[in-house]
Amino acid sequence: FLQPFADSPLDNEDVGATILQSVISSAQERMWIMTPYLILDDKMTTALCVAAKTGVDVRIITPAIPDKWYVHAVTRANYEELTRAGVRIYEYTPGFIHSKVYLADTKQAVVGTVNLDFRSLYLHFECASYFFRNAVVMDVEEDFQKTLAKSERITLENCRKYPFIRRFAGKALRILAPLM
Known about the structure:
The chain is an alpha/beta fold. It contains 8 helices and 10 strands. The protein has helices spanning 15-26, 42-53, 69-77, 79-85, 118-123, 135-149, 156-161, 164-173; strands at residues 2-7, 30-34, 38-39, 57-63, 88-92, 101-104, 108-112, 116-117, 126-132, 151-154. Strand 6 (101-104) and strand 7 form a beta hairpin.
């Protein structure tokens, strides 16, 4: 099964956010995410934390080398809460990663332009494809395995070692998250 979809800020339907929340909440074994921007709203943070707390292997890969320092600061500001809930965070070390890929169990995948940030989920025109029990899902899993091999795991201890000014800047910038 393959379902392409588009999302528009003009129709009062948050298609991208709805699909991603559905995929996250339906994951039973794993929910792997690759996104360049991890600027979460409360609903998405709750969905990811609940999934991890209920035993789902939630992993998120973000870039270790950012394209925008302030977006990276906000991305990292989300790490501590997520890692405390059991989400495993990884940073892709070779460079900037711009993939927007979501894998739930070995059944579902979403690949497209939808980032995990407020603007992408609610304010931008986006498109993606949802795959269910499709051979592409295994290709997505293989890509995740290769990317994880080139990524560094970020622990709660790593989060606490970030310089105070960077942690403070990230948390302060979260106020502006809908604009990023």
